[in-house]
Amino acid sequence: MTMEKQRVIQEYVPGKQLTLAHVIANPDPILYTKLGIEEASAIGILTLTPTETAIIAADIATKAAHVGIGYLDRFTGSLVIVGEVSAVCMALEAVTVFLEEKLQFSTAPLTRS
Predict the structure, then answer these.
(1) Which of 84 and 12 is assigned the larger pLDDT?
(2) Which residues pair with 80 in a beta bridge?
(3) How far apart are the C-alpha atoms of 78 and 18, rounded to whole Å?
(4) Cα gap 113→24, rounded to integer Å
(5) What's 94's DSSP letter?
(6) b/e string for 17-28 if b means 16 or more Cβ within 10 A?
(7) Percentage of residues in the chain with pLDDT exceeding 90?
(8) How far apart are the first and last CA of the chain?
(9) Closest to 25 in 3D by CA, of 98, 95, 101, 85
(10) Do 94 and 7 touch, CB atoms closer than 8 A?
(11) For 21-58, what is each residue's pLDDT tens digit?
(12) For the residues of 39-68, what is the DSSP string, one character each?
């Protein structure tokens, strides 16, 4: 039995959007291992278009709260930040407010698990 290769098709919709803003409080330590990032109390995840906005979001997040950058990809618009739960929440809120008020982005609500 031969297995078919799976294809991933990624499509970007033009516009200024924060499509995901999520905090994972007290994640299972295996997540840090799988992601290859330093352990902390929380992980914050953002996805943005245009994709280069991830750089702006990282700057805002690190200035707003004591968080570290776990992962940043300007080609996919992905940003992962790590830190204490309250700091990660504060950083994601600051990014959301800045993008919405200053850059007129459509934003997703901040969610938490």
Answers:
(1) 84
(2) 45, 71
(3) 10
(4) 5
(5) H
(6) bbebbbbbeebe
(7) 65
(8) 40
(9) 85
(10) no
(11) 999 999 999 998 998 888 899 999 999 999 899 999 99
(12) --SEEEEEEEESTTHHHHHHHHHHHHSSEE
